[in-house]
Amino acid sequence: MFKAPRGTEDILPEEQSYWRYIEEKAVATCRLYGYSRMDTPAFEEASLFARSVGEGTDIVNKEMYIFKDRSGNELALRPEGTASVCRAYLEHGMDNLPQPVKLYYFADIFRYERPQAGRYRQHHQFGCEAIGEASPMLDAEVIQMALSFFRSLGLLQFCLQLNSIGCKECRPNHLHKLKDYYAPLAPGLCDDCRARLAKNPLRLLDCKKPGCQAAADEAPKSADYLCIECREHFESLKRYLGVLKIEYTLNHRLVRGLDYYTKTVFEIQPLDGGSQSALGGGGRYDDLIAGLGGRPAPGIGFATGMERMVFNIKEYGIEVPRQEKPAVFVACMGGDAKIEALKTASELRDAGIAVVVSSGERSLKAQLRQANTVGATCAAIIGDDEIKEGTVTLRNMETGEQQEVQPDDLKRMLGAQQ
Ligand code: AMP
User: Fold this and answer.
1) Residues lining ligand 1, CB < 6 A?
2) Which residue's C-alpha comes closest to atom 15 of ligand 1?
3) Domain ranges (residues) in the chain
4) Which of 23, 210, 346, 357 has the highest Cβ tally under 10 A?
5) For 83-99, what is each residue's pLDDT tens digit?
6) Domain 328-417: which CATH number of 3.10.250.10, 3.90.850.10, 3.40.50.800, 3.60.110.10
7) Distance 118 CA to ligand 1 centre (A)
């Protein structure tokens, strides 16, 4: 028997109402904030991610699904959404539109991670990007948008964590201090952190291993080494968040795992630290567009994990609208009845009524059982007697009450759309 690959999941029909609920709320939030949807391919040139996410990151080094196609092109399944949107922004000349350009997407994301609760090798993200505007007002608006999206889902038990990791002017200074601080501690660090010390010292700060956490807590903080511009940006952002009455926790260990971030980074975390960890996160990427070869344009965005949201919606018992069930099940017995059933079903559907029709191969009892299983509210039964009389037997599936009706009345009784 085949099984879904490790770290992937089927999204079964009974799960779909959660996904539709999240999508509807996401689309509604994007409408309120003026974002337009775009979709990008599931794979890109691998070098796009190496260039943007960064050569020294776990995502590119260890987690990317990378392959050569039959023409020898080196491709990668997208391990995140921002790089593709920025590539498309440049490719389609969106830098010539009035800025900022505000885009959102739903995308499946592929990372070769160690599968565990809430961590998959294929997961799904809803993300937003606002490209072409440097003001911290936009940072505040993007954060507000992420929070109001979670609130619209009914997810309230989460807090905003905030940090600034500076820019290419001031970050080297911080990295230098980090290296100095960590050098004597290296023997006590985990293997990954020892490698990070050389390649990507910022990532030392968000190591989850208990042995490394104490060192990270005391490490030099990026916010203490910001240049004037980054400091003013961060202070303005905090002021705007205050105006919007958005509470946040400053977390100097929040660095995020992608190299393109500059200045503002943020995450939405569960208050209790559980619930499968971050619901979403994002930040500014003011050098990314230029790094991809475009005219310099700043940007900011966030991405949220659909599976994590589904998990938390269930965890907190949030009611979601159930998928619509078929209004009527058409049951039939006998050859002529089959033809009548087919005709009745198609007339009802033409009138906008959802129908499941039986092929009439099984007993009436079995067909009515099926009507119950599919959740139909009533069954239209057609047999020899009904054909003789030119009627249909309409059965209320809840009460079992039955009545003879004229085919013309059936549509009216089932609430046909005009
Ligand atoms: P990131 O791009 O890593 O910031 O991811 C954005 C959001 O996607 C996270 O906050 C999580 O909610 C979700 N996420 C990231 N990685 C995974 C994964 N492997 N499995 C499930 N959800 C994930």
Assistant:
1) 80, 111, 113, 118-120, 123, 125, 257, 278-281, 303-305, 307-308
2) 305
3) 13-170+226-315, 328-417
4) 357
5) 999 999 999 999 999 99
6) 3.40.50.800
7) 9
